[in-house]
Design a protein that fits this description.
- By secondary structure, the chain is mostly helical.
- The protein has a domain of 234 residues: Transferase(Phosphotransferase), domain 1 (Orthogonal Bundle), CATH 1.10.510.10.
- It has 20 helices and eight strands.
- The strands form four sheets. It has a two-stranded antiparallel sheet with strand order 1-2. A two-stranded antiparallel sheet has the order 3-6.
- A hairpin with a 7-residue loop joins strand 4 and strand 5.
- The radius of gyration is 24 Å and the shape is elongated.
C-alpha cells in the first residue's frame, strides 16, 4: 500500500527464525487518544478526520484490499502538532474484490459489522467500522451498548444508542452520513466511492479542490523528472523512501489534488487533465512525464513515485538524504557502489549492460566503483545524463511485501473503544476481540 494516509512499510528483514517488518515512525499518537483528550471532536475537525480516513479506505478498496480492523486505535497522527492521519495495522487485511465473501471472524467487536457475526461478509465490513469510528468522533460515545450478548444483539439489529443532547449539537448532514454507514444490509450501506460523494464529506473535499493544484513549480518538477538520467531517477526514488513526514508534507497535498477521482493513484487521464486545464501543457509532454514516473507500467502513479519526482526540485536534497540513498546502494557496506551492488538493487529487470553504463557515467576516477563523493557530485549535477536513457523499474515491488503492520499476533485490543468516552478509566478494561464472539 502506497498512499499519503496509509502507513509506509520501509523495510523487511528475514532470518531463519523470524520476519521483521520496519514501519515508518509516526509520533503523533492515536486518534483514540486525541478523542479521549477532547471527549468529543467539533464537527469541522471530525469532518476533516473522516475525509482523510475515507481517502485511505477508498484507496484500499479500489486496489482490492480490505483492512478488517478499522477503529480509532488504528489511525495514527504523523506528528504531535499535525492533524494528518495514517491507517496502520494490516494484520487482518486481505486481498479481495467487492463481491468476495469472507468467513474468518476477526477484528474488534465494538466495530464489527453485523454480517461478520454470521461469518459471511464482504469488504463493506470496513465501511461499517468506519461508521462506528465517525460516530464516536461526532457524538463522543460508542454507538452500541456494553455487555457481551447485548452488544451483539444491538449490532445485528443496527440499534445504536441516540443521546439527544449529543446529537442535537451535530448537523443533519453529519447525522445522515453516519446513518447511511450504519446500515445492517451491506448492499444498502454506502460504499467508499458513494461516501466521498455524500454532501457532508463532499463539502470538505471541495475545500481541498478549491485550493487548486495550479502550482507551476510542481508541474515543472514532474516534467523535468522525465529528462533526468536513469540513475538520477533511481537515486531520487531511494531518497523518497527516506523522506520525513515534514518533508512529505511540503508536497503531498499536490498528490491528493491530482488524484481527481480519489482512488489513491494518479491515472494517465487525470494526469493529462490537470496539465491541460492548469498549465496548458500538451498531451505529448504530459505523456512523457507520466511514463517516466510510472516506471513499473502499472497505469497509474503511486504516492512514492510522485515523491520521487518532487525530490528533484521541490524537496531540498540535503546530506542526510544523500547518505541514506548511498547506503541503500552500498549493499555490502564497503563504502563504495559496485556493479554487483547496483545489479542487486535493481534486480534482473535491469540488464548488466545498463548497469555498467550507469556506473561508467558516475565513475570519475574510472576505477569501476563509485565513492560517496562521486555519487554526490553526479546527483547534484543538473546536467548529468547518459546515452542509455529508458525506463528503469523502481526497486520496491509492491507485491513482494505482505500488508502486515507488526509481527506480534498478540491481543488486538489492548485499548477497547469506550461506551462513554468521558469515563477514561474504562480504557483499562479487558479486551473484546471478535475472536470471543
Amino acid at each position: 500500500m502506497d498512499h499519503p494516509h496509509v502507513v509506509c512499510l520501509v523495510d523487511v528483514y528475514e532470518s531463519e527464525t523470524q520476519l521483521d517488518l520496519v514501519m515508518e515512525c509516526l509520533n503523533g499518537g492515536e486518534l483514540f487518544e486525541r478523542l479521549i483528550q477532547r471527549q468529543q471532536f467539533v464537527e469541522v475537525d471530525a469532518k476533516d478526520a473522516s475525509w482523510q480516513m475515507l481517502l485511505a479506505i477508498s484507496y484500499l478498496h479500489s486496489h482490492t484490499v480490505v483492512h478488517r480492523d478499522i477503529k480509532l486505535e488504528n489511525w495514527i497522527f504523523d506528528e504531535d502538532s499535525s492533524n494528518h492521519l495514517k491507517l496502520i495495522d494490516f494484520g487482518f487485511s486481505e486481498r479481495c474484490t467487492p463481491d468476495t465473501t469472507m468467513t474468518e471472524v476477526c477484528g474488534t467487536k465494538r466495530y464489527a459489522a453485523p454480517k461478520l457475526f454470521n461469518q459471511c461478509y464482504t469488504s463493506q465490513c470496513d465501511m461499517w467500522s468506519f461508521g462506528v469510528t465517525v460516530f464516536a468522533l461526532l457524538f463522543g460515545y460508542m454507538p452500541f451498548q456494553e455487555g457481551q450478548h447485548r452488544m451483539r444483539t444491538c449490532i445485528l439489529n443496527g440499534a445504536y444508542v441516540v443521546k439527544k443532547n449529543c446529537w442535537s449539537k451535530v448537523s443533519q448532514k453529519a447525522q445522515d452520513f453516519v446513518k447511511q454507514l450504519l446500515v445492517v444490509d451491506p448492499n444498502k450501506r454506502l460504499i467508499a466511492k458513494q461516501a466521498l460523494e455524500h454532501s457532508w464529506i463532499k463539502s470538505r473535499d471541495e475545500i481541498e479542490r478549491a485550493y487548486n493544484f495550479a502550482n507551476e513549480a510542481i508541474a515543472n518538477a514532474l516534467i523535468s523528472f522525465a529528462r533526468a538520467s536513469q540513475f538520477q531517477r533511481v537515486a531520487m526514488h531511494m531518497m523518497a523512501l527516506s523522506l520525513t513526514n515534514n518533508e512529505q508534507a511540503q508536497v503531498r497535498k499536490a498528490f491528493i489534488d491530482m488524484d481527481v477521482n480519489r482512488t489513491g493513484g494518479i491515472t494517465t487521464s487525470e494526469f493529462k487533465q490537470v496539465f491541460k486545464e492548469h498549465f496548458q501543457i500538451g498531451g505529448e509532454q504530459a505523456t512523457e512525464a507520466f511514463r517516466a514516473l510510472d516506471a513499473n507500467n502499472q497505469g497509474e502513479i503511486h504516492y512514492t513515485e510522485f515523491l520521487t519526482a518532487m525530490v528533484s526540485s521541490q524537496i531540498q536534497i540535503h546530506e542526510e538524504l544523500l547518505q541514506a540513498a548511498f547506503k541503500r546502494f552500498d549493499t555490502d557496506s564497503t563504502g563504495y557502489i559496485t556493479e554487483d551492488n547496483l545489479q542487486r538493487v535493481l534486480g534482473d529487470s535491469c540488464s548488466p549492460n545498463l548497469v555498467s553504463a550507469m556506473i561508467w557515467d558516475m565513475d570519475l576516477s574510472k576505477d569501476k566503483h563509485i565513492s560517496y563523493q562521486e555519487f554526490r557530485s553526479y546527483l547534484l549535477d543538473v546536467n548529468a545524463s547518459t546515452d542509455h536513457q529508458g525506463a528503469v523499474p523502481f526497486m520496491v515491488d509492491k507485491d513482494t511485501h505482505p500488508g502486515l503492520q507488526t509481527l506480534e499476533e498478540a491481543d488486538k485490543d489492548t485499548k477497547p473503544g469506550l461506551q462513554t468516552l468521558e469515563e477514561k478509566h474504562m480504557s483499562m478494561n479487558s479486551p473484546q476481540c471478535c475472536c470471543c464472539m
